[in-house]
C-alpha cells in the first residue's frame, strides 16, 4: 500500500526529524537577543504597569524561547536606557503618560513619535482610579466638586504630567465650570510612584489620590478604622470598557461594584454635554534605530501569543482588557489619541 503525504505534512515531518521546533524556527528568524531587557516607566513593582508588562513579557519570552526581564527604572530612567541601546537589547513598556507628559510640558518627557518607534499596544487598564480614605466625608465626585465650590481645599496626589494629572485637570475644570473662581481649591500634590501616593493618604497629607484597581483594591477591603483603608470614588474608564472585564472583578470587588464608580459626570465645557472619560492603554516603545526585523518579530510573536489565548485570560484575571494592535496600527491609534487629548488638555487648562 502506498502512503501519500501532503506537502505540508512532509515539511512538518522533515522539521520534526531535524529536531527543530516552531519556536526555535521563530527565534532563528528573529534578531532579538537571547537576553532582553524591558524597562518600564514606573519604579513600582506593585503597580499596574509592572503587572501588565510582566504578564505579556513572560508570554513573549516563552514564545520566542528567550529570557526577558521587566525592570522598573522609572520614566526618565526608561527613556535614557532606550536612547542608549540602538541594538534592540533594551525595549520599553509604558502607557499614555509617555505622550501626556510631553503635552503637559514636563521636563524630560520627549516627543515619543519623533524620538522613538511606537510598538504594539497590548492592554487597557479600566481600573485607573481615584480614591479617598474610607472614613472620608466625600462619598462621590459630586461631593468633592461641591466642597471645592464652597471653599474647601481638596488636596489631590498625582504624578505631574501623567495619566493622573489628566484626571486632576478634568476635576479642576469641572469645578471651574460649576463654581467659577473656585477651581483653585483643587490643589495638586505632586509626587512619584503609587507607593508614594498611598503613603500620603495614609499620613493624612492629601484628601484624594490617583491609583488603580490592581494596586489599591486590597486597601478598600480594610476596616474603616485601619489607617490604610481606602474607598474608590472614580474610575475614569467608560462603563463599556469595564464591561469587557471578568464578572468577578478584582480581588474581593466585583465588576458590578466597580462599575458604580464609572460614568461620573465630569463636564468638559459649558456648551457641551460631553463628559470626560479616559482609558489607560499600555504599549511598547523602541529605539528609533532598532532593526525593523526585530520590530516585526515582536509584532508577529505577540499576534501569535494573543491568538493562542492564554495571555488574554491572564490579563483579564488581573482586571485588564486585552488590547493587541500591531505596531503600524498602534502608532496611528496612539497618535490619534495624542491629538484628541492635546485638544482636551488645552480646553481643560483654558
Verbal overview:
It is a single chain. With 350 residues, the chain is of the alpha/beta class. The protein has two domains: 33-125 and 279-349, Bordetella uptake gene, domain 1 (D-Maltodextrin-Binding Protein, domain 2); 128-259, Periplasmic binding protein-like II (D-Maltodextrin-Binding Protein, domain 2). Helix content is 43%, strand content 19%. The protein contains 15 helices and eleven strands. The chain has helices at residues 7-17, 22-28, 48-64, 75-84, 97-103, 112-115, 141-149, 163-178, 194-202, 213-216, 239-242, 255-259, 292-308, 310-317, 327-349; strands spanning 35-40, 67-72, 90-95, 116-125, 128-133, 154-158, 186-190, 208-212, 230-235, 280-287, 321-325. Strands 2-1-3-10-4-11 form a six-stranded mixed beta sheet, sandwiched between helices. Helix 3 (48-64) crosses helix 13 and helix 7 packs across helix 8 (163-178). The longest helix has 23 residues, at 327-349. The termini are far apart. The model is unreliable at 1-26 (pLDDT under 50).
Keyphrases for this structure?
five-stranded mixed β-sheet; D-Maltodextrin-Binding Protein, domain 2; 350 residues; six-stranded mixed β-sheet; 19% strand; alpha/beta; disordered N terminus
